[in-house]
Structures are given as structure tokens and as C-alpha cells.
Amino acid sequence: MTLATPAGYRALDDASLRDFLAGLPDLRDRLGGRPPDWSIIEVGDGNLNLVFLIDGPEGSLCVKQSLPYVRAAGESWPLPLDRAFFEQSYYRAVAPYSEGLTPRFFYYQPELYAIVMERLSPHIILRRGLIEGRRYPGAAAAVAEFAARSTFATSDFGATLEEKAELMSTFARNTSLIRITAEVVFTDPLANSPRNRWTSPALDGLAAEFRADSALKVTVAEWGRRFLTEAQALIHGDLHTGSVMVTETDTRVMDPEFAFVGPIGFDIGAFIANLVMNAIAQAGHATPGDDRKAEADWVLSQVPVFWDTFSSRFLALWDEKARGDAYPPAMFSNPGDAAVLAGARKAFVDRLFADAIGYAGVKTIRRILGFAHNADFELIADPARRAPLEAKSARLARTFLLEPHSFRTPDDIVAAVKAL
Amino acid sequence: MTLATPAGYRALDDASLRDFLAGLPDLRDRLGGRPPDWSIIEVGDGNLNLVFLIDGPEGSLCVKQSLPYVRAAGESWPLPLDRAFFEQSYYRAVAPYSEGLTPRFFYYQPELYAIVMERLSPHIILRRGLIEGRRYPGAAAAVAEFAARSTFATSDFGATLEEKAELMSTFARNTSLIRITAEVVFTDPLANSPRNRWTSPALDGLAAEFRADSALKVTVAEWGRRFLTEAQALIHGDLHTGSVMVTETDTRVMDPEFAFVGPIGFDIGAFIANLVMNAIAQAGHATPGDDRKAEADWVLSQVPVFWDTFSSRFLALWDEKARGDAYPPAMFSNPGDAAVLAGARKAFVDRLFADAIGYAGVKTIRRILGFAHNADFELIADPARRAPLEAKSARLARTFLLEPHSFRTPDDIVAAVKAL
């Protein structure tokens, strides 16, 4: 490792990880046996970190450690280690509202920037499962439940301004990852960035057309401005189907290192966009025995499930647990206020849907023309099959951005995808 | 003093202030002579602080010190001392952009929560001057220039996201004063708060009517939500005519202790609301020789001067100094982008005007039905003269809030006031 790192930091390997865990009695007991009995494998397949799975005679753990560079890009793209601090800060902040919906958090070692948490097994990444044609009946609703609970509780409806200020003050410093989002999601994909790539030459024309579309670019830029300024709640910041692990009956949201106090619709739009991209990509995974049409329909059907669950749970929490400084209950003590207040709350949640449509458009385009692509499309090996599906997604995303009023409900999204 | 205060804190008096300044060579030199030669008077007529003016043989100083309670309410309303920290943080943050538009900042003593700054002389409070029927030809434009420069430079257009994050992280902790605004500006005036007062019995009916107006209350609450969430730029937080000192030729913005990263329109709306209230109040200060109609017209004419200066300067700075992460220049390098980008910028500034109208409505109602009133009205001794003018202001404010689309330009405000 040639990059300078703080004193006390070293990238963990099998031996040093074993020593580290052996020195923590609670975690050692959880694994059981003696350190030589533990099996350790490194499985990080994401972009940014080392991820170890540790199995002992009595239990298992997962350790996630920051690397000082973007793993997917190599040491040429350095990245501060402190994202692990923000990830564990997020897990701690949302823990009271997310029991059973995230991996359990056990320990954070600040000098190693290492998080020790529950090893999820036999969970797999939701995105992978969907690509393989499986269904997870409770997943979309669980992610929606998680998003509703965690964002409501940290919003100005569910938190006092002092509580929210504490979150803002902490997470505003997560600038390394906020900058990555600002650049690779909002700026680069429609600019001339060397980090961009797309299925070439098939999509060269589409990429050029999008980059020449000034109206599209100012719309994306306006969503970028709102991403940077709308401090609505503590959000996950990267809530796509690759940040969710599932079994048939269990769903956990993970990888919140991009967390900050931002627009709720950014998370909602990310999840919707990734469901829609998966549904569109299904045709590319068709086999002689399975055209994947039923799977595509099922995935798409999860968009209304997700939104309806999120919106109804958010409104229910607002009804039950309003204690923040926005729309303070003290202002609405007259009997006649209730209906008007309910209408205002509904209008707020409707605006979150409109926000989600905008962010879904942005998040889709970046997956097709930007730096980080989706396995949903990438695993379609033949570019001649992949490119038309990517183009469909990109054009739908442009419609999200330039004709947002055509999308007032999740059913409008479903209908638009089916009409492609 | 019975409230607990940190070690090292004491409320300054003549003797201890003299000792304090005597121990600071630069400031001692600025005053000249020996400490016994200095004259010290305490002039704090605001709500929250001690303010001392110190004159020496060679120069003068002003010292502003936090008290541990709201001065206007007494020790029954405790208030943390740290607002002085935020006030000096604001002066430092905007210093590069506000030369000659604020008092010069010299020194901050953190244990005493005491700020030493330029003594402005022969300046008076703009509000007082306007009440006395004077005119300050450059004042509105200077305040607009200050607001444009300081908010642009600290917005996502003029600052990098790292620079803005630093401001957010610091000023998010200014919760004591943010809470005061949230409560006394947005919540209390339309709720049943013991802190409210109004010209009674004349305005009892109006107060009851407003408190029963559910639509008005949710509109105010929505502006309150936006106040708490729209982190657009470092704002002054209390930019009314009482926070500005003037001579015929010089204008200085002061008292930024309510500063935080919030909606730009909150400052703009505060200043507009206070000009409008002063214009409406002029009739109450009429004398046999001066009906104050000309003064009212002049004050009102400063609304377009203020907005036009602010908006044109903000747009000019955006054109000259765009270096932030919102609407990043890298996205708009095609020749065809320029016109569309200019339109988007204009649209953003137009939305700031709409925001200002909303906040102006909120800030007006609170001055008539809430805790802190305006000298513009308070100095009209006869309630029979005062109440109708306050009622006019409050009803106009309600129109700002419920019929915002009637106010698309500052001339619409001028016309509405003249039609009252």
C-alpha cells in the first residue's frame, strides 16, 4: 500500500483479523472455540471496501473495513477511510427504528476503520436473486418499511430540531462519499468525463444525444442542487437492490456509507429505479425455457408495493409519532384542523413521490452512461441484447425527468414500462 | 445571576470590561491612552445581550456579550451563551464577501462569549431612522448587495460541497437560536402560546380568526418545514431593518447570531416584510406638518430596489464565480447550453422571490400576533391608531401566504400595499 494512512491503520488480512477479533471477548465468545478454529474468507465484491466473513464453532461475524482508495478503480482514486465511521454512525442512529431490517451492528474499531456486524446467512444480494429469476415476496415492503421508519424518525416530523441538528452536524462531514454521488450520479454521466462508459458502439448515439440535451442537463442539475440542499432526513444514500440482502423470508438493508441528511426521495427513487431497470433487463436473461416475462412483471409489481408501503407507513408514523418542529402539533389543536393537516401531510408525501421520479431518472441514466453500471445489465453478455434494453431504460429515465407530470402514481411507472 | 454558567464566564461590567480590553494590546492601542481614560457605556436595547460602547482618546470599540437568558424576558427564559460563538463564526465566514457592509470584527473571547468589533458611529438603526421619517438612499441596495454576496458565496453555486459542509456542520449546532425562530416565528403566533400578545382588544377578533384558519396554519407550517430543511446557503437569520445600522452614506448589517445554513428567501423575505411594515406604519407617525405619505411611498419604493439589486447581483455572481457542485460548469460546456442554463438560473432566483413572499408573510404575522413586536408599530402610542395599521399588515401577510401567485414581482407588493 503506497497511500498514506493514519497511524494505527492497516488493511486487515487473515492473521491480523484473527488477532483483532481474539482481543475482543464478546466477539470471541460469539464465534466460539479458539482463533485457529475460525475460518475467514474475504468476499468484498463492492467498489470500496474489504469484507471478511468469519465462521467459528458457535457463530459467525462479518467485518467490513475501509480501504484508502476506490477498490473498483485502484489506488489511482484515493478515498478517505472515514466512510466506515459514517456507516457505523448510521447503523447506530437508525438502530432504534430498524430492528430486524439491517444487519446487527456489534463493534466499531476507529483506528482500523473496521465495522464488526452480523454475518447474514444464507442471504444473497437482492439484485443477484432477481437477476437469477427468483422472487422475494416480502423484500420491497421490508425495504419500504425500513425507509419509512428511518427517515420519519430522523425528519423534522419525528425528531426535534436538536436531534436532527446533531445528525446534520455529524453527517455533513461525510463529504468524500457525498462528493462521489455528486460527481458520478449527477455531474459526470451527462458531461464529458473520462470515468463514463457505455455499451459502445451501440449506445454512442444515445450518449451523444443525451449530452447534447441542454434541457435534460439542467433538469438533472436541478435534482443535483436539491440533493445537496434538501436536508429532510437521514437517508441511506445508496438504497438500490445491491444494498439489500434477502432470503425468501428475511430482508436486510446494508452498506449505508453514503448516508447523510438529504432528500428522502433520493432513497425512494434509487430503489424504484433499480426495480425498473431489473424488470427491463429480465428479457436479457431469458433462456429457452423461460422468457422471464413473468419475472419482469413480478419485479415491476413490486414498485407499487414499495411505494404504497412506504407512503402509508410514513403517514401512519406521522399520525402516531409527530414530535418534531415541522408542522408542530401545538399549531393544530382545533378540531377543524385535522382534515386540513391530513391533506398537507398527504401533499408532502405526494411530493416525495415526485422527487422519487426525478431521482429515479437521474439514477438510471448514471447506470447506463456513467461510471458504475448495474449487474442487471452487465451480466447480459451479448451487447446486441444488452444495448436495446439499456436504451429503453435510459429513454424512460429521460421521460421521468422531462415529463414528470406523466408519473403521478406507481401504476403510471408500471404502465410506462409495459408500453416500452 | 442565579443561572449556572461555564467556568470563566462572568457578565462584564465597567471594571471587568476595562481590565479585559487592557489585556489585549492590539485593542488597547486602538483605543489609545490608558484604561482609566476610556469611557464605557452599556447600550444593549435588543433582546439577548449586553452591548458596550468604549471610547478612548484615539479610537472606539463595541463589545457584545451573551447573557445566559433572553434579556427581554428575564431569567425565566434561559438561553445558552454560545450564540456569540455563532455570531463571530458568521462574521468570519462572510468577511471575504462583506467588506464595508458589516462592522469590522476584531476579537472573540470564547470563555466570556464576548465579541469585540468596530463601533459604528454616527450610525443609527435603520428601523429607527425610517420611523423618524428619514431616508437612506443606499441602504436597501447595500443590504441586498450584502445578502447576494454572502449567500451566493456560501451556496452550492459559489462554494464547494466541502466548504458548505463545514458551514453546515458548524452552524447546525446553533440550535438555541434556531429553536427560538422555529417557535416564535413559525409556531407560536398561530397557536395558543402564553408568549403571544397583540393590541387588545382591537385585534382580539383578528387573532382568533387567524388561529382558526387551518389553511393559513398549514401554509405557515409548510414554510416552517422549509425553514428547517432547505440548506441553501449561510443566511443571517434575522435580517430585518433592526439588524442594519446606517448613516446617509454607509450601511452595515449586524447581529447575525441567528445564522445557519438555511433558505435564502428567509433573509430576503424578512427585509421585505420589515420595509412593508414600516411603510404601512408611517401613517401612525404622521404629525400635523407631515402626513408621512411621501415617506411611506419612499420606503415602499425600496422593496423593488432591494429585490432588483439582490437578484441581479446574485445572478451576476453566478455568472462570474460559479465554482460549486450544484449546476456544475462541467455539465454545460456546449455552446447550446448557455441559454438554457441562464433560464434555469433565472428560474431559481424567481423561486427565491416566491420564497421571500412566503417568509415575509410569516415574519409579518409574528410581529403582530407573536412575542416580539416591531418599534414601527409599537411606537404608535395610541392603540386606536396602531391597531388598524397592524390589521392591514396582518391581512396583507395572509394574502402573501394564501395567494402567493398574486405576487410575482416586487411591484405587485407595492401595488398591494397602495391598494390597502
UniProtKB/TrEMBL annotation, chains A, B:
GO MF entries: ATP binding; S-methyl-5-thioribose kinase activity
Similarity section: Belongs to the methylthioribose kinase family.
Cleavable signal peptide: none
Record-linked InterPro entries: Aminoglycoside_PTrfase, Kinase-like_dom_sf, Methylthioribose_kinase
Organism from which the protein derives: Kaistia soli DSM 19436
EC number: 2.7.1.100
GO BP, sorted A to Z: methionine biosynthetic process
Xref: Pfam families: APH
Keyword entries, A-Z: ATP-binding, Kinase, Nucleotide-binding, Transferase
Name under which the protein is recorded: S-methyl-5-thioribose kinase
Domain Aminoglycoside phosphotransferase: start-end pairs: 40-278
Quaternary context: Homodimer.
